[in-house]
Amino acid sequence: MGHWPRESKLHDSPLAVVAELILLLSVILVAAKVGGEISERYLKIPPVLGELGAGILISPFLLGGIHWFGGGAIFELPHDGGGLPVEPQLFFIAQLAAVVLLFEAGLETNSEQFMKYVRPATAVAAGGVILPFLMGFGATVLLGFASMDSIEAMIPALFVGAIMTATSVGITARVLADIRRLDSPEGVTILAGAVVDDVLGIIILAIVVGISEEGEVTAGSIGLIFLKAVGFWLGLLVLGSLVANKISKVVLWFKSAGGALVLALALAFIASAVAEIYFGLAMIIGAYTMGLALSGTELKHQVEGQMRSVNNFLVPIFFVVIGMQVDFTAFGAGDTSLTSAIIFAVVLTVFAVVSKLVGAGVPALFVGFNRVGATRIALGMLPRGEVALIIAGIGLTSGVIGKDIFGVAIVMTVVTTVVAPVLLIPAFRGGSGLRSETKAEDGADE
Questions:
Q1: How far apart are CA 261 and CA 264, in angstroms?
Q2: CA 358, CA 369: separation in Å to the nearest integer?
Q3: For residue 109, what are the CA distances in angstroms to 106, 239, 297?
Q4: What are phi and psi of 73, to 5 degrees?
Q5: Which residue, 61, 65, 196, 386, is most buried by CB atoms nearer than 10 A?
Q6: Helix (H) or strand (E) holding 323
Q7: b/e string for 411-441 if b means 16 or more Cβ within 10 A?
Q8: Distance of alpha carbon 368 from alpha carbon 120, whole angstroms
Q9: DSSP 3-state assignment of 71?
Q10: How many Å separate Cα 87 from the centre of its chain?
Q11: How many CB atoms lie within 10 A of CB 123?
Q12: Which of 156, 108, 144 has the alpha carbon at shortest distance from 409?
């Protein structure tokens, strides 16, 4: 923990540890709000980018790691953080915020719209996983960071492929919520696509980790991972939707202050924990699916306003902590030269943009969207955000990828995460993105 402003024997006291964490949390909150305000008011870009930027600035690798006035650093790298550059307690709060953000995104999504667009979203997600995986794998091998000589030599390329498949549903959901387009056809397709994308990406990650640990993987084990992941997600969605109104009535029976909100959040936490612990799926997928199941109920209307207040406090912490995990000093570390790392970063970033624009955009053209709609969807699938950082972190801590590839993955993640919201907002100005509505408008004009 950052022993700031100075070390003392009081640090043995649990309350002193808590007080220090509260102090660090206050630094994160102030940084988030300053960054968000500068972004929104002066730079005219989404506040989420200011929060990410603030996180990068106050991280242990930049300002947070400086020993001010002879004392300790504000954010020292924890010795027992399991490879995390932030305190595990702060990481916990950030993940809690991610769960709450995605639960609210699920509540705000129109479940009928979601069911209507889940098939086109699956096509978009499949394209948005296959092409990025192949391009990431290819770039890693071509630039000499992995080879095809053996399964072991291929593992870094498989890992980079897995990192490339990620879509940050959190960042896209936040931007769509800010511009009130969460329940538009494109918004629903992006969110459904991002969830399917993460399900597929996590299956790929589980397979790659299996290969790296066992040296091989069987068709049976791949099938089992796939069935567990998809089975849980669809099971929760269908079963949740069937009993949603009953759950809503039970929760609304509680009349004590905040009862409905607390129990709704408890349901989101249960779904997210079960998804992660028992089915190997990301917590955010469990939370989003639970929100989606409850989105057509009375409970949604009762807790909607309160959820926004909770989110206003928690969610900026999530984005700042993501920023704090970005370590540009890892760039060019390891056995490779800085030049080859820079070339790899540029190539991977270009491939990351092209693979999502083509991989997610082209299928969208074939499932009922016009060029405007397909562009919006492709841009919405572009940010890699926290999902890519989590996958890259797993690779680094398990020793599968070195600091060099980790640094390159960070650059790619930061660029796609910053570019996407900037392009996404103007893309949503203008007419309908649905091909049928465009034709109807053209007919009316004639």
A1: 5
A2: 14
A3: 5, 17, 12
A4: -75, 155
A5: 386
A6: helix 298-324
A7: bbbbbbbbbbbeebbebbeeebbbbeebeee
A8: 8
A9: coil
A10: 20
A11: 18
A12: 156
Rounded to the nearest angstrom, the gap between the alpha carbon of residue 77 and the centroid of all alpha carbons in its chain is 23
Give me the residue label for tokens 């924890």.
78
The larger pLDDT score, comparing residue 130 to residue 398, is at 130
Q: Where, residue-wise, is CATH 1.20.1530.20 in the chain?
A: 89-438
Q: How far is residue 248's CA from residue 251's CA, in Å, rounded to a whole number?
A: 5
User: Locate tokens 């890693």: which residue?
Assistant: 140
Chain centroid offset of residue 439 CA: 35
Q: Name every residue whose Cβ is closer than 8 Å to that of residue 95 and which is 6 or more positions away in sequence.
A: 283, 318
Q: To 10 degrees, what angle do helices 111-142 and 151-165 make?
A: 140
For residue 349 the two structure tokens come to: 């970033």
Give residue 382's identity as a one-letter amino acid code. Answer: L
- Report how far residue 144's alpha carbon sits from residue 138's, in angstroms, rounded to the nearest whole number: 10
The burial of 297, by beta-carbon neighbours within 10 Å (0-12 exposed, 13-18 middle, 19 or more buried), is given as buried
Coil, strand or helix at 285: helix
CA distances 56 to 88, 399, 407, Å, are 18, 24, 14
- Give the closest residue to 6 by CA, choosing from 74, 65, 63, 59: 74
Which region holds residue 319: left if phi is over 0, alpha if psi is between -120 and 50, else beta? alpha
- Partners of residue 73 on adjacent β-strands: 67
Residues present in the chain in total: 446
* Its pTM surpasses 0.90: no
DSSP state at residue 297: S
**Domain 89-438, classified CATH 1.20.1530.20, yes or no:** yes
Residue-wise pLDDT tens digits, 372-409 = 899 999 999 998 876 777 778 777 767 778 778 888 88
pLDDT-derived band at 31, boundaries 50, 70, 90: very high
The DSSP symbol for 77 reads P
